[in-house]
Amino acid sequence: MKEIIIKLGERSYKVVVGVNLREEINEEIKRLAPSSLLLITDKNLYPLYGRKIEEICSQTPFFKVLLPPGEKGKNLKWVMKIYTQAIKNNLDRDSVFLTLGGGSVGDTGGFSASTYLRGVRYIQLPTTLLSMVDSSIGGKTGVDFLAKNIVGTFYQPSSVIADIRTLETLPLRTYKNGIAEVVKYGFIKDGEILQILEKKKKEILGKDEEVLEEIITRSVRIKGEIVEKDEKEKGLRAILNFGHTLGHAIEYASRFKIWHGEAVSLGMIGALYISWQMGITGKENLERLERILKIYELPTRWKGKDYEALYPLLLKDKKRKEGKIKFVLLRNIGETEIRDDVPEELIRETLYYLQK
Fold it and tell me: Most CB atoms within 10 A, among 76, 112, 280, 325?
């Protein structure tokens, strides 16, 4: 078991990564001493893990909201249902929300916690590789409204408890979805992660707990160190969006048939293609990325129906400033550059490249 502290002054919290963390959940609930608990999870996860959480919390008034799986539950309609359940059962500011699930559950539950009664405490219990290495860390919450993640807050959890054993029941496509974010960390900060991905395909796809603990812990440390320096994404934290500018547009244009990690894979290819064409990086980094993504059968091309439709979506990206589209580009492994001067014709060329 590994424990990482995200140091944010009074809002500091720990991230626990390990196997069979039932006791850690129990101890954290005792520490927070909530007046009541509201579990937010999805309908598929509740039978697998939700009932176990309910057993752990048997000494505290306990309520739940079961979201539809995936992006279908990540909207204001379901936030209203969470508010309704909380109000109906008189949850107060001493209550604690528990978000059990992947990124969509964590984002929706975290946003609800941040806005109910102007903010109640919440514990992130991520159950996907993607949420363990990325969305549960750093306090970004949000829901979709006409565009992805357009309504949200920065609101840190009280703790994050990532039990690797929950990955055992994860479907392969969902699991690989998280590998894309691990690849991202390798390119923006830690070349050793890339070496592990290249050398330990069998162990990673076989969900070897020791190897998973290492790559999850490395990823959490990278994100934690970045968030500590730039909690509200005023500068450095923006490098975590490597692959996300194009990725979010692809995800939304596909109506979420392309999942987040798959879209980020394509977005990273696009970002590295731009980096190469602008003379910022060498073609070998683009080729290495394509090789690693292919090892894990993540997409490197998407034959979308209308790539022209992606450009208007990029103009709606929440990271834009003064109408300019921001891209996180790569100089070398561990070295990034944020640019808002990518020519429109190169962006359109990149969209065409992703179609090839």
Answer: 112
What's the length of the chain? 356
Structural domains of the chain in order of their starting residue, each with its CATH number: 2-168 (3.40.50.1970), 176-355 (1.20.1090.10)
Phi then psi for 158, rounded to 5 degrees? -80, -30
Which residues are catalytic, by number?
118, 140, 181, 223, 233, 237, 241, 244, 248, 260
Q: CA-CA distance, 105 to 107, in Å (whole number)?
A: 6
Global pTM reads 0.93
Quick one: three-class SS letters along 76-130? HHHHHHHHHHHHHCCCCCCCEEEEEECHHHHHHHHHHHHHHHHCCEEEEEECCHH
- Reading the chain (356 residues) residue by residue, the pLDDT tens digits are 999 999 999 999 999 999 999 999 999 999 999 999 999 999 999 999 999 999 999 999 999 999 999 889 999 999 999 999 999 999 999 999 999 999 999 999 999 999 999 999 999 999 999 999 999 999 999 999 987 789 999 999 999 999 999 999 999 999 999 999 999 999 999 999 999 999 999 999 999 999 999 999 999 999 999 999 999 888 889 999 999 999 988 988 888 889 999 999 999 999 999 999 999 999 999 999 999 999 999 999 987 666 677 877 787 665 555 568 999 999 999 999 999 999 999 999 999 899 87
Q: DSSP string of 224-264?
A: HHHHHH-TT-SSGGGGGGTTHHHHHHHHHHTTTSS-HHHHH
Task: Name, in order, each residue with C-beta under 8 angstroms of 110's C-beta and a sequence gap of 6 or more.
Answer: 99, 122, 124, 139, 140, 141, 153, 155, 157
Q: Are 344 and 315 in contact (CB under 8 A)?
A: no
Cα–Cα nearest to 23, from 45, 60, 55: 55
Contact call for residues 239 and 226 (beta carbons, < 8 A): yes
Q: d(Cα 70, Cα 177) in Å, to the nearest integer? A: 12
